[in-house]
């Protein structure tokens, strides 16, 4: 049952990165959109993220519950030594959701709309930035359980070049996912060309920040190159991600609406696979050279068994409902748009 729980944890993180990442990326796209085009971008964005933005954080909640119940030592370590970036990320999630709601449904349209807009776009940038920083910190080898001062214990555990580079890479990926998804939501040729340009820029940003991650890993003696290219799985995943990237741009040129989203999600899946496969089942690398493992640091067998059963039963109810939610929104939009973009 432990492997069922681990699979659910990995899939929950993947879905949060792919679906929640595109959600955050919509705000990032708006942040880098010129003022005359912001209203058009917002309209398309609302249509795109409306069906799932409320459900996106479900995947993060599932991941947190799995860690809390199934791997309490790992949960305690992360929530202790990474509590500052975790708090900033959670505050970003709350601020973003609140701002999006108020700027859409506020009964009074006044100068507060500008405040809501700024909160929304900046929290959309900050949240995935710190999500990436947290992810990078777990494998950076900077979490120090033997620290004797505040800076070593709670600041340098996450404030390092490698973790920050991972943060900017994650942010770029979110913007890239959103731009690709929004291409398919565009009903006008001008809008579509605009989102294609944004997708190109975010693609370049993701490549450059990815290079920065490798440079930072070399500088800080983190064996990222070995993790990615030191095994057949990593090499195959990189190759497949590269091929799918080329295919995606070919399909964009042909005006394919759905396949480009699948390919963009597939690329992110391959990236996550390359960065987690080699050091599995170790999820946190400590500064003293030890590891916190999903196998060695799991909870009691009874807790794992109960958690696995709950996840399996819950997925029977949640996944069909989520699919129906997305399908119903897409059907509604299809009728409204009369499939004006093919």
TrEMBL record:
Protein name: Cytochrome d ubiquinol oxidase subunit II
Localization in the cell: Cell membrane
Transmembrane segments annotated in the record for this chain: 6-32, 53-75, 81-99, 119-139, 159-181, 201-218, 224-251, 258-277, 306-327
Upper lineage: Bacteria, Pseudomonadati, Bacteroidota, Sphingobacteriia, Sphingobacteriales
Pfam families in alphabetical order: Cyt_bd_oxida_II
Family, similarity comment: Belongs to the cytochrome ubiquinol oxidase subunit 2 family.
Alphabetic keyword roster: Cell membrane, Membrane, Transmembrane, Transmembrane helix
Topology of the protein relative to the lipid bilayer: Multi-pass membrane protein
Native source species: Mucilaginibacter litoreus
